[in-house]
Amino acid sequence: MTEDERRVSAAMAEEDWRQRQTTMVIGEVRRHRQAQDMSAAELSDACARLGLPVHRSVIANLEGGRRGSVTIAELIAFAAALDVAPAQLLCPVGYADEVEMPPGRIRPTWDAFEWITGACPEQTETPVAHYRKYYLYLREEREAQQRADEQEHRAGHLPAGPLQDAVRATATAERGRAQAIRTALDVLRKDMISAGFLPPADLPDEAGTPA
Q: HSE on the CB side for 112, CA within 13 Å?
C-alpha cells in the first residue's frame, strides 16, 4: 500500500468512526427524549430556550442518519435540554457494554466515561483528580461536623453520667476528625498551587485552615 493509499484508508476509517459515534450519540438523544415523552419538536424548542436553537429538521436528519456529525454546542444543548450529563450521551453507561473511543479502541463503557470525565484511577496528579479529592474531603468534613452537632445535641438531653460523657466524647472525636480533614484540605490547596492549578473558588485566598 502506498503512502497516498494509507492516508485515504485512514481518512475513510476516521469518517466511518465519526459516523458511528454520531449514530450512537443521537441514539442516546432519542432514548432520553422518548423516555421523557418528548418529541423532536419539543426537544428543538427546549434547545431554543437554552439559547442554542437546533431546528427540528436538524434533529430529524441526525436521527435519520442523513447528517454525519454533532457539534459540541449541539451536544451540550441536547444534554441540557434532556437533563443528562454530556458524557452520558457520548458513553451510554447502563445501555452499552462497550464503546469505540478513540477510533479503533474498544473499551468498557464505564472506562470510556471515566476517561472523558478525567476520573481515571491512574490519573492522580491532574487538576480533575485534585478537585475530586478536594470535594470528597469537603463532604467528609461537613459530615463529621454534622455528626458532632448531633451528638452534642443528644448529650444535652441526657442526664449527667457515663452515657452523657461517652456521647460528648464521640462529639469531640468527630470535631477532631473534622479538624484533621480541614488540615488535609489546606495541604491539598498548597499542592494544587505548587502544581500550577487554580484551587476551587471557595478555598481561602490565604494559606491556612479553611473557614
A: 22
